[in-house]
Amino acid sequence: MAQRVYATAADYDSYAEEPFDGDEAKLAKRLRRASGVIDGLTRLARFEMDDDGFPTDPDVSRAFTEATCAQVEYWETTDDPTGAESTMGPVRIGSVSLGGSGVGGGAQNTRSASDSRISPEAVEILANEGIVAQIVGSR
User: Where is this region: Disordered (predicted)?
Assistant: First the structure.
């Protein structure tokens, strides 16, 4: 089965605070990749869907669209759509430490590398619609 895509470029333009920093082909790829993340977050969720696997309830469909846009916007903000940078530890120069958003990122970071590439806002949108349980402080 082909990857479902829950948002369009027009949806992203309507949702995001800032315009996408790239061309339409790149945005289409990001929306596709983000839709895969949303599929992962909702894998065990129960909701009505059509034969292609898209939600049929308008509120659930809107949540999928907004969560997909939030995920792409998060990647734009973090500049790390693949999650590769989240696995890197901090950079130290003398007594100065920079970065460290991933697994090796220091004592204050409790998110795993895979969790750090997930948009907290996307999870919140889905949780508010009752599609996915929001787990706080699980690690």
Answer: 76-117
